[in-house]
Amino acid sequence: MEFILDTAIDGLVGSLRSMAIIAMIIIPIMVFIEILRAYSVLEKTYFILQPLLKLYKLPKEAALPLMAGLIFGLTFGAGLILQAVREGHLSGRDILVINVFLALCHSLIEDTLLFVALGASAVTLISVRLVFALIITFMLVRYYDRIIALTNKFGVNKTKDMQEVNKE
């Protein structure tokens, strides 16, 4: 019985230590995000993603959701994607390309800091995620028409274009 109690206490103490480390990383990041939002820094730095937008044939309105998703994560990026869709700036293709890229490579700062705290290499994490996301998304963009033709041929693509959904 003493073994079970000792194990439970060790597990609780270890979990609390891990939560404290995560909180020390996450809380400053969240404060930083709010400062950036207050001063509209993200909107002013979209030119950084111009090469990526050009490579993936995305409109400039895709820069802000991409930047936010890359730096801060999927939740913030998704909110900006929804806003851009409601404003009519992104096509269904644009949304797919952004979502695939962000699914593979999101929250670079937060995730990297968390894994570095656990002993991982920041350079390795970021470079592998970026390279993998760049290659997979490039393949999607390059073969997009073929992929859509195949899904239509087999009756898989039954979703509406996002612009049609917004009109309803």
List keywords for this structure.
168 residues, mainly alpha
Descriptive notes:
The structure is a single chain. The chain is mainly alpha-helical and 168 residues long. The chain has one domain (40-167). The chain is 77% helix and 0% strand. The protein contains ten helices and no strands. The longest helix has 37 residues, at 2-38. The mean pLDDT is 84.
What does the secondary structure layout of this molecule look like, with pairings?
Elements lengths: L1 H37 L2 H4 L5 H6 L7 H10 L1 H13 L5 H13 L3 H10 L4 H21 L1 H10 L8 H6 L1
Q: What's the gist of this structure?
A:
By secondary structure, the chain is mainly alpha-helical. Helix content is 77%, strand content 0%.
| Number of DSSP-assigned strands | 0
Shape: globular
Distance between the termini: 63 Å
Largest sheet: none
Mean pLDDT over the full residue set: 84
Uncertain regions spanning at least 5 consecutive residues: none
Q: Order of helices and strands, N to C?
A: HHHHHHHHHH
Assembly state here?
Answer: single chain
Tell me the number of helical segments per DSSP (H or I, 4 or more residues long): 10
- Please give the radius of gyration in angstroms: 20 Å
- Helix/strand/pairing category: mainly alpha
**Which percent band covers the strand fraction?**
under 5%
What percentage of residues falls in helices of 4 or more residues? over 70%
User: What is the number of domains?
Assistant: 1
